[in-house]
Amino acid sequence: MVNGKRVIVKKFDEEAISNVVVSVREVSSDGIVIVRFSEPIYVPLNYTNFTSKELDITYQSNLNKNVTLQSWNVTNLDDSYMEIALKFSDPTRVS
């Protein structure tokens, strides 16, 4: 569950409802986010081509509203974790 909602994962062109818990484990100062899954997931071969159709990634800050998330890409994915590289408009203002 993510924020109290069940996660729907696509698996071989069929939707399967899963109770996988997704949690952010680490965010580096370089904008690398490590996400962990509570149970093994299916890993598609083309994960480096993920877009906003596959993942909804947003950034909100109560402190600095002038910084925006410009882009992101999945750099690594296996059945237990995902690594995402974030690119901000002004990375020096993100902590």
**Count of alpha/pi helices:** 0
Q: State the end-to-end distance.
A: 26 Å
Which strands sit side by side, in order, in the main sheet? 3-4-6-5
The structural class is mainly beta
**Major sheet size, sense and barrel closure:** 4 strands, antiparallel
Q: What integer value in Å does the Rg equal?
A: 14 Å
Shape: globular
Helix content: under 10%
Main attributes?
two-stranded antiparallel sheet; 6 strands; globular; four-stranded antiparallel beta sheet; mainly beta; about 100 residues
In words, what does this structure look like?
- With 95 residues, the protein is mainly beta.
- 0% of the residues lie in helices and 41% in strands.
- It is built from no helices and 6 strands.
- The chain has strands at 7-11, 14-18, 22-27, 32-37, 69-77, 81-88.
- The two termini are 26 Å apart.
SSE layout and pairing:
Layout: E1 7-11, E2 14-18, E3 22-27, E4 32-37, E5 69-77, E6 81-88
Antiparallel strand pairs: 1-2, 3-4, 4-6, 5-6
